[in-house]
Amino acid sequence: MHEEMVNKEVIAEVKEVWKRFDLKAGIFSKKTIYALRGVNLKVFKGETLALLGESGCGKTTLGRIFLVLEEPSKGEVYWFGRSIKTLSKREFKSLRPLVQAVFQDPTSSLNPKMRIKDILFEPLSINFKLSKVEGLNKIVQVLERVGLSERVLNCYPHELSGGQRQRVALARALILQPKLLVLDEPTSALDMTIQKQILDLLKDLRQSLQMSYIFITHSINTARYLATRIAVMYLGKIVELFPAQALGKVPHHPYTELLLSVNLDPFNPIKPNFSTPKGEPILSFEEVKGCSFYPRCQYKKPTCQTSGPELVEVSPGHFVSCFERIS
Questions:
Q1: Strand partners, 299
Q2: In sequence order, what are the residues at sequence separation of 6 or more whose Cβ sits closer than 8 angstroms to the Cβ of residue 156?
Q3: Coil, strand or helix: which one is 148?
Q4: Which helix (H) or strand (E) segment is 166 a member of?
Q5: How would residue 262 be classed by pLDDT, with cut points 50, 70 and 90?
Q6: In angstroms, rounded to a whole number, what is the distance separating the alpha carbons of residues 14 and 21?
Q7: Which of 31, 106, 117, 326 is most buried by a 10 A CB count?
Q8: Longest CA–CA separation in the chain, Å
Q9: 242-275 exposure pattern, b = at least 16 Cβ within 10 A, e = fewer
Q10: Tell me: the pLDDT tens digits for 106-129?
Q11: How far is the C-alpha of 242 from the C-alpha of 97, rounded, in Å?
């Protein structure tokens, strides 16, 4: 592993994590959906790790497992070097405020019947013993940090714009002074101008507060703008992991190349390729013996169908799961 990463503090980690969902396929039958297939991943102090991939690749499920909102079918989750399985209820409660989330749609994550001041005071009252005055002072401070004035305190969520609601959702997470924020497509429901404002705010907050982010996105341009490292996911597995500044500048996994080829970037002189890739993708309920990208890969070899490549470091900090790239 890259020397810079070896010396960094690990905030959170998953080891050999699998997640399966059993769904009814009829009266007497069921199908097993494999959302995650043996994922290993670390999040380091002060970094933004982007989980990049198409819908259904498992990135949101992985984010929820990092948050302990989902329990893995197999494997372990670690916070600050401690396995979640070994924590007592008291220890878990003390660590819970340090790992928070901001979701895609602030409208559904904010209680429409509560005023903003009550939405922000609720997590404080659950986790800390504070008076109303102390709580209000903290609320005003965190609102200022996310670019909102105390004028919104008595508003209800529907009285705010989409960008303001997302700033409130961010303030609710920040008020507990977390070390790790899991951000699940936090700007996709906003228009382009507001997206840029929120992304800039997230950048500034990470640097000033020395937080770590897991940033879940399907947008290559957003990952390039915000991330320090990028983990590319395909069918429940991480197929590539690399420093964000290397995006498009090194030989990538064939799936990453496919994402780059269809990316709409007005500043890229290479025109996007919208031709449909050959081959049918493997379905999420199929067990995979070889490489899951095999049917769609232009570099495939016979061994790829029977033997699944592991993530191998091909250059400092750059890991690829592809026989063509590691040979």
A1: none
A2: 112, 113, 114, 115, 116
A3: coil
A4: helix 162-174
A5: confident
A6: 19
A7: 106
A8: 68
A9: bbbeebeeeebbbbbebbbeebeeeeeeeeeeee
A10: 788 899 999 999 999 999 988 888
A11: 29
